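Progress against Task 2.4 (sequence-to-structure conversion) is shown through the following example record, which the project officer requested during the mid-term review.
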Amino acid sequence: MDKQKQIIILKQVIATFMAGCTAIFFSNAFVETIHDYLDYLSALKGNNVGLDKYIDNTLSNFFIFLFVSLSLWVLFSKILPRNWIFASLVGALFAGLLPSISNIFIFTVEKSPLMALCLRFLDSIVLVGFIATIPQWWLLKKNSVAKSYYWLIVNGIGWGIISLLSNLYLTLSNDLLGKTLWTILFNLFPWFQFNNLFDSLEVFAFIPLGLGMGLFFTRNSIDKQKEKIDADKTESASAVA
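Structure tokens generated for the chain above:
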């Protein structure tokens, strides 16, 4: 892999990482505002059981998917299909709503946190990695991007990893094996802040997704640049002739 491709991939990894961090911060701030409004409604109409959790998941997934998709537009706007932002917005709506609806039917969190983790992992692969990226994939296919189906594979793997690491803390905090592991770790390393470790894992989980996206668009970016250079040379030769 030449240096130009490495730089493109590195830029996308950094952009995806920054987009993920920004989306988490932005969604948390937005969620806090919504919670204040829900608390006000609860005081007027009674308790909103489960509604706050549903809204948290929806807004978080929506903003993370949208911000990551916009990071691609920053770097590859010259080669991305038109209406990419609109397709990303539609995908973000799917990414926000579908997993949140699915989580309503997951009643295994208290009984089996490990099973809940597996279900959320599969939800992210199927509902976010595949279904939510279909509008983007359709645009790529329509514009004859080479091996556009790789886009679904890259996102399936990437969003699955993000979900796995994001929900790992919940599993280890509730599962019997996880509680045992926590006890051992705290006894061995009482000075270490393990909460910060899992916060870091949640953020750095975006790196594999950025790497996959960078690898996907690297070939197309380089090919587009070569085509443009060849076209410019042809036009120059024609003008001279």
